[in-house]
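Researcher: Please generate the 3D structure of the following complex. Treat every line as part of one assembly.
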Amino acid sequence: MSKKDSEYLINRKDNQYEVVIGLEVHAQVLSESKLFSTSATKFGAEPNTQVSLVDAAFPGMLPVINEFCVKQAIKTGIGLNAKINKRSVFDRKNYFYADLPQGYQISQFKDPIVGEGKVILDMPNGQKEVGIERLHLEQDAGKSIHDLDQQNTFVDLNRSGVALMEIVSKPDLRSPDEVNAYIKKLRSIMRYLGTCDGNMQEGSLRADVNVSVRPKGSKEFGTRCEIKNVNSIKFMQMAIEYEANRQVDLIEEGKTIDQETRLFDTKKNETRSMRSKEDAHDYRYFPDPDLLPLEVSEEFIEKLKNDIPELPDDKKKRFIEEFKLSPYEANILVSDIDTAKYFEEVVAKMGKNKDIKLAVNWITGELFAVLNSKALEISQSPVSAKNFAILINLIKNGTISGKIAKTVFELMIDGDKDPQNIVEEKGLKQQSDPKALEALIDKIINDNREKAIEYKQGKEKLFGFFVGQAMKASGGKANPQLINEILKKKL
Amino acid sequence: MSDITKQSLTELVENIKNKKLSSTDVTKAFIDRSEKSEELNAYITNDFTSALDKAKKFDQKPNLNLKLPGIPMAVKDLFCTKDIKTTAGSKILNNFVPTYESTVTENIWNEGAILLGKLNCDEFAMGSSNETSFFGNVQSPIDKNLVPGGSSGGSASAVAGQLTPVTIGTDTGGSIRQPASFTGIVGLKPTYGSCSRYGIVAFASSLDQAGPMAQNVKDCALLHEVISSYDSKDSTSIDFKRNHYSKELTNNIKGKKIGIPKEYRVDGMPKEIEDLWQKGIQYVKDCGAETIDISLPNTSYALPTYYIVAPAEASSNLARYDGVKYGFRAKGENLIDMYEKTRSEGFGAEVQRRIMIGTYVLSSGYYDAYYLKAQKVRKLIKNDFDEAYKKVDAILTPSTPSSAFKIGEKTNDPVSMYLNDIFTVPVNLAGLPGISIPAGHDSKGYPLGLQIIGKAFDEQNILNIAYAMEEKINFKNKITDWWIK
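Model: Done. Output below.
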């Protein structure tokens, strides 16, 4: 393993720079209702239709913690191999904004619900461990809409009070690729746990990206800049590339880097200063007196631990051991929970005499291609796992050839048809009767006497010609293995 | 019956249950007197027309099993009342009509009471004289141009002046007990967590408690029994077994140990307060209780601690009044300008002062020195009480360091105004119950109160002690109806 080759470095004349990245991921808790109120959290609802008196901060309204969201945060903490804090505290983060009705966000500052943990990334050159600093629960703000009216800003409070988990990584990431793998891994774990749907388009997952650079080999961190609220992996990678190069240029010019908050302009592909450290808000954090410290018992945590499903790392290990898959294949199958589910269902439906390798090849090959072309998730697959398993078995037991199977698969897509019916209706069953095939081949040799002689005289290329003729004569249904055997014998 | 408004709550309930009085009779009487009492400025909003309708409706189908059958009642304008304007004494909420009801008032209406109107108070309950209200100061029924105390000044004035049989106030640092003491009535600040804060305009969340104000201890016990309930809508509400406070009320306090804290003998305290306290000590002894000298060593830190914790919480609690969603909004060039103008014009001087203090003590660089230290001292103050309660069942102190003062007398001296709360504030910081009962008059004939502080959740005990003392004191409030023409 040559780790050196894949190192992400920024090169200038005589210097090489390493990039140090830490992420603050905001993951929306998958929950029917908000963190401190009973309002619904459905995405895409009409503006201001999911707002309670608490969310709109009416006088005398009080927050009441949603126990389900607490469970979700703890489960996520368990999934991140993290320390669960039995006592955590909700604080108020005070600032004024039109879409922040209370004038403060309820968050966790000093005492988060989840402490240090770690996630393992599978990189091309091996595994990489990324430390988790903490995970805390907080409220989302509403949404200000500036472009609907020239004079006014509109405010939609549907999101106000929705539960978020802020997952803070240690500054352990070193490249855009690692960031990609990290976000995907987090998303995968949370989707396995059912604690966040990870939908970045709907804003369920977004991140603040902290970037600094330092000369290769240096142990000290450089001054970091925080790029706020980036909502796609691609943009994160682009922002890091831009920001790291910007910082390196400053160093090369002998200038200093200001610690500041920056925005990523997706149109211009550049980061821009939003506010400097001096202008940073003083959030006046203090414990929210409307809420008592959150205390959870050992039993409460243990019970949640028992509910934790098999997570991607364990599943991968099991797939490798149980199904003799390569780490690469296993990775593909486990990274998305729905893919893993589909695969396991196929395996189960294939019964005793199963060919798992074949199934894996077909899932990652034909099935993925169809899903891709139709822009479907595997959970929306037009071919059910059950019929898919039947198809694989038909190949395995020689009823149809791999080539015919592709035709059958095409026909299955429309209405999730049973491949057995297709094979029978269309008469696609493979010809595996040796006697019939011998007769067929005798006739072909007879019809092509001259070519047969040429072959015997050493023109071995002609073997393919005879196979082709035999397949053609059988309408593609002849068992290619048998054809080969018989031809070799007869020629 | 012309003396309806002179009757206690207990008498009124009895008379309605015995059908000697109808709800309409009683409601009419209090409305009449309230209408004649405009000079007190006790009401911010009245709901007399609808109150009379409700009384008539009650009389048509009276449910006499309720605890407050057809009893009219005005409440402090800090309680949100459905469809009735709720201002918190502030311009910034001058046009605010809630669509919801506070749990405490809901409990009251559920027991058959009828809303008369909303009573004046210091703006956002910040004040000790009811002079910070946007709706003007309240006059005390005791004397012209005398403050009724605050922040529940309208409530105290309304009960003492017989504009309502009983009422509820809120107490963050003494806002029930101090005005009760100034106007010669009984006021109870319950244990923190006893009464729900849901629907009460927040001042300082970790200190605010609603409580009853009444002519006598028994009325106070009955109203407390109605308003105290566990409420899942308030995360700081406590689910403990509540007594039937009025039914279980007894004047038998024989053998009770009453602590007398030496630290409450403060410098410059008028001799008549000291004398009153000594009289109180004699009364409890006469009732068969024993008094024990105790020490609450951190008492002197209570006031400075309170004036860090309460403004800190208030500065954050009042951030929601920004002109965006409801309430007063000033025109501005942009969002920031609108915020600044709305809050400068919408909040009065005292509220602005406390927001600034609170913002300051929470600021980075000052948080540890002020807010965090104050929280630590708060713990010490609580520990003082915990220690004391190993030896005694309750603590007896004066309610205030002086009697009521004249309107305008302390307006320009916030510190001397804040000193009013010196005996009441430690109780809020420790989350304990405290009751003020009228115990005598000063040389000017103004009422003076004594405070009984109890263990957490031990309201029954301090109500009993108050009940026993009340009998011995036999206080008569000198209400001359000076404001009625």
